[in-house]
Amino acid sequence: MKRLIAFAAAPLLAIAVFSAAANADPIADRQALMKDQGKAVGSLAPIAKGEKPFDAAAVLAALNKLNEDAQKIDPAAMFPAGTETGGDTTASPKIWEDNAGFVAAVNKYKADTAAALASKPQDLDSFKVAFGQVTQNCGACHQAFRIKKN
Fold first, then answer.
1. Cα–Cα distance between 29 and 22 in angstroms, integer?
2. CATH value at residue 72
3. H/E element holding 32?
4. pLDDT given for residue 144 in this prediction
5. How far apart are CA 138 and CA 77, in angstroms?
6. Which among 21, 36, 46, 78 has the fewest CB atoms less than 10 Å away?
7. 17 in a domain, yes or no?
8. pLDDT exceeds cutoff 70 at 12
9. C-alpha distances in angstroms, 15 versus 6, 7, 18, 78?
């Protein structure tokens, strides 16, 4: 009898788990993804600045992580209407006021991170070009669609 109850309850438990995941906090989700992006950029910036030696394997691993995370950015799911107010967020209201511009910026970032990874930089100069394009996108998007912390 216990097995029958457990067997019957399993689908209900699965539905509950998937429902909870579907209703996850978009602010927390986007912040976690952006922090992860920041870690990848933080590991690459010293190399681009010449503060750390160029290591092709480490660069490719970090670019791969950056690209994986970039491809996860879904403006509709991570920045839904209603998340522009409330919560601890630095997302600018411009995201919702100029959503087409925001989506275009996200798509450009996704394309440029994919291109940076595909270029497979094998030396510092080629890495700087690829990484420079990616970070230029980061800066432009943050300038237009993020509220600066004091």
1. 11
2. 1.20.120.10
3. helix 26-48
4. 93
5. 20
6. 21
7. no
8. no
9. 14, 14, 5, 22
Residue closest to 88 by CA, chosen among 9, 4, 5, 32: 32
Neighbours of 138 (CB within 10 A): 20
Stretch 61-85: mean pLDDT = 94
**Encoded tokens for 2:** 């216990």
- 12 occurs within a structural domain: no
* Assigned domain for 13 exists: no
Question: Residue 119: is its pLDDT beyond 90?
Answer: yes
Q: How far apart are CA 113 and CA 22, in angstroms?
A: 27
Give me the domain span that covers residue 109: 25-145
Q: What is the pTM of this model?
A: 0.80
Nearest CA to 93 out of 144, 137, 139, 140 is that of 144
Burial of 81 (0-12, 13-18, 19+ CB in 10 A): exposed
Q: How far apart are CA 11 and CA 121, in angstroms?
A: 48
Contacts of 115 (CB under 8 A, 6+ apart): 130, 133
